[in-house]
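Comment thread on ticket #2218

A.B. wrote:
> Attaching the input chain for the structure job we discussed in standup.
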Amino acid sequence: MAGSRLDLIAPVAPALLIGARGFDDLSGFDPASSTVVQGLRPDHDALAGRGFTLLPTLGDLPPGDGTFQSAVVFLPRARALARARIAAAAAALPTGAALWIDGQKTDGIDAVVKEMRGLAPVDDVQARGHGKIFRVTVPAPGWLPADWAAADTRLPDGFVTRPGLFSADGVDPASALLAAHLPAKMPTRVVDLGAGWGWLSAQVLARPGIETLHMVEADADALACARLNVTDPRARFHWADATTFALPEPVNGVVMNPPFHDGRAADPKLGARFIRAAASLLTGAGRLWMVANRHLPYEAALAEHFGDVAEIGGDNRFKIISATGARRAAAPKGASRLRRR
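C.D. wrote:
> Ran it. Output below, let me know if you need it in another format.
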């Protein structure tokens, strides 16, 4: 996607890249003189393995002290996050530097080009691969609206979120439904796989029985909010890919509301990998509680990794599933079937 447009530009080193993914073609950038802001742990690790300097969040960027001479912003879907990335790049660059913005039409690149023309000199607009890349010449400081800068949002219930996070405007209804179906007393050692900004973990910790709760989240911004939202000393925070997360000792409970999108692309296999990871974390007698969109075909993955699987609740949109009898080896086909109760 982005790589097909990046070869149309000639950025000046040292360069800053905000939002580059692990699969992007960055061959036009020297890793030794390029810094990438990327908070998704799999992408972060992939880019670090290619020799780039990595920063997990926009807040980790140094002030505009001449560290960077050009920047590329990879446009995300969320408008508030797009503005925050542009503001962070502009603040990190000196006056007159080139700020490139790259994005797909489906992510709103045309609207961003129009908006930026009203704020700064824009040129070298080039289209390729159902998207565009264009250059903004950075004016003197103060050229962007102040409210573009990344800022935490405090929800009415006191939880803190950030632009671009999943369900940043409030509690996700699927997570709320899952919380309503958790038992009155939880197991002693629990993992929240894909903990997000911490709402579900807070509900788990409000129940008796918990001694340790491992909160696993791949998005550094989400985990930073989770640290603010969950101050219970029983919580343990892990910036990690939930699909490959491991602990030295098994736990006796896992809760999760697994994602099924990578960017815009729907990928039900992502949820299946969460199910496999949950099974690998649990004792044989441990239990998984998960919520999923009703149409998602997770039954085969659940049957493969658990001996006893039951739908314990839900509605026309979501299904709540409980599973126990975790096993690592693949089960014979049809050995376990989803049952309702």
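A.B. wrote:
> Thanks. Noting for the ticket: The chain has nine helices and 19 strands.
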